[in-house]
# Entry
Amino acid sequence: MTSSRSAKVTLPADDQILITRDFDAPRRLVYEAWTTPELVKRWWNAKRGEVTVAEIDLRVGGSWRYVMVTDEGGFEVAFHGEFDEISPSERIVSTEVFEGMPGEEPPSEDDAAANTVTFAEVGGRTKLTILSQYPSRDIRDAVIATGMEDGMQDAMDLLEEVARSLG
Amino acid sequence: MARAATTADAFNAVAEPRRREILDLLAGGERPVNDLVDQLGLAQPQVSKHLRVLREVGAVDVRAQGRQRLYRLNGRALKPIHDWVKGYERMWSERFDELDAVLDDLKRKERGDDDDE
# Structure
């Protein structure tokens, strides 16, 4: 298995986002870290804040909800969804809805993504894939547009480029 | 005249697997259509169709050289999508780095439990 320690993000179709990453651990442990609230609280923050809520009712039809309070600005970022399919240590299919930016209308449940998380083990290592299927390309692109966390930096880069071209 | 490519247009252009292959090939440098046809194993009309979509969003530029038309990548049009993918990758990489630490703890705990037996 080729080693890829950094996350790889691709857009395999108009209405999908795919994330892949290899882990140096058997899949039952990756699954445990993925589905145990106290453990999710340790990694889901992405070093950008503190996960204050990690609720996981791990059964088909059960719901989940994660809330993070960001270090910068101290605002809440929340996602929730429902489990549609659970194959322990192998595969989880669930919905995911972003609860929206503070002061903005929250997105509709109809705009939920269907996430398929697959844990594949080869030689004691695990290849994790997260495939997010959106109802349409427009919704996928809207998620991408609101997820422009580095948007400000991009704007600065672009300004600098423009300034250079004028100079 | 070519209109300004929107972010959504660029997303669409690069989301199609064959077009991504074309962009990957052009990332290695300017190429004539025939070369792309050979590399992709597709019929010329299909390749031309994909190139037309990529040109419409400004993802590739074309110039004539003798009887050949040479295509090259236009990085600027793809910047929005590239930047988003990189940013999203960075966020997930940081999550996964922390997940690595959690997994190290779980592995240590398992080894510890084994020792107790």
